[in-house]
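Ticket #4471: complex job returned nothing on first submit. Input attached below:
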Amino acid sequence: MPDAGMNVERPVAAIPLKVERQQLHDTVVGHLRRLIIEGVLEPGKKLNERELCETLGISRTPLREALKVLAAEGLVEISPNRGASIASMSETEIREAFEFMSGLEAFAGELACERISAEELAEIKSLHASMLTCKAQNDLPGYYQRNQAIHDLINQAARNATLRQTYVSLNWRIQALRFHSNHHVYKWDRAVHDHEEMIEALEARDGKRLSNILRHHLLEKRDAVLSMLQANTLKL
Amino acid sequence: MPDAGMNVERPVAAIPLKVERQQLHDTVVGHLRRLIIEGVLEPGKKLNERELCETLGISRTPLREALKVLAAEGLVEISPNRGASIASMSETEIREAFEFMSGLEAFAGELACERISAEELAEIKSLHASMLTCKAQNDLPGYYQRNQAIHDLINQAARNATLRQTYVSLNWRIQALRFHSNHHVYKWDRAVHDHEEMIEALEARDGKRLSNILRHHLLEKRDAVLSMLQANTLKL
DNA sequence: TTTTTGTTTTTTGAATGCAAAATACAATAT
DNA sequence: ATATTGTATTTTGCATTCAAAAAACAAAAA
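Support reply: We reran it on our side without changes. The output follows.
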């Protein structure tokens, strides 16, 4: 007889009932992922197990488990008997990653048009306004964060957990690039214009249009990142 | 000075130079994946580590590493301190998986139209013919295998490794369903007709059209699997 | 000097061991 | 009898250990 006479539920709002527990290896996955995305651990860098263990203050077992997971995600590469290293993407891989992302976002946009709620749409509009403020103040990190949040919200509005999982995972790999391509400032106005069109399409629930905008938006981002990366390479 | 005077390369054809080595945990991942996809390990089944170790003839360390990887893939679920079990999909998850797959295949089809080679197209046609033979002989496994191969070839023709990786991984999860939905015999003629249209579109390099066909093809498959599953559930 | 071969050191792969948590079970109280 | 608390057993999480492979280094030969 569950729930009978249980008047202790949801004391105030939607506080999740059970305590969140994490296994050490999960914590390590998150931690390492962050270090990779933030560019602390650079692409190609060899990961010495003993060394990393000491740094993180854990033993080899959970670290190795974490590395296997990150390898499955594509952030880390493991060669047998030779250890792990941070994955580095070739130009081709970068092209493909962005191409795939353009497909993912286009599809998510189409679904979002059918399923987005009024609240979510309002949230996106608000984020867009906030993004414009950041732009006016030349606040690049702020701009970037809002931009990311908008794309993320559209993706969530697609209401497809599997699609979302793939999106998030691919996004990590793409973000890992960001810190090695100089926080691309490129075609700022064009990007803002794209976003305005995106919102229009969303409001009109015009899936095909949103889909097209997102597709091209991402392909432009790809080109920007690629040219940044090439410029960087030349500098070295 | 590498390669100097090395006349021992490629004795006959394209034999890969270096010996393929596998780590134990990788072997185990593949092995378990197969067991899950083939339905030997049923959804929801609890995996006892000690037990599995004895069955597979390995120790717990590589097994646990393998389980983490499979969990990242979504074939296995791990709850902290409580062990692993074969993932089972809810109806919603199944809907979403197929919906996502429809998006993936549609996008892959569009790319494939731009990039497929004449040889690949011929291969697909040949597979289609072979599939028809299987149909005529009521060879369901054979039919299914060719069908799978055609979709796989289209996906490969998209020439995008990241997209392909996601496709393959999602396919595993979908295939794991197959053995619990009675090898759906559903709408056989309609499926064949779809395939003929797909080939037409590919030949015409009509990306949009192929994309649409694949999208609907997958959504029909979704409905077939869902109704099969519901029929199965009722039987129990 | 350069290349090759043999040896030492380091690093990784996998098994085992120990502690903590969960489950199963039994005993007591209601 | 049912519910609850306490105890024993099992199972999991993580650290450690041991063996195998790779890398680094040194010695010998060309």
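Chain B has nine helices and three strands. Closing as resolved unless it happens again.
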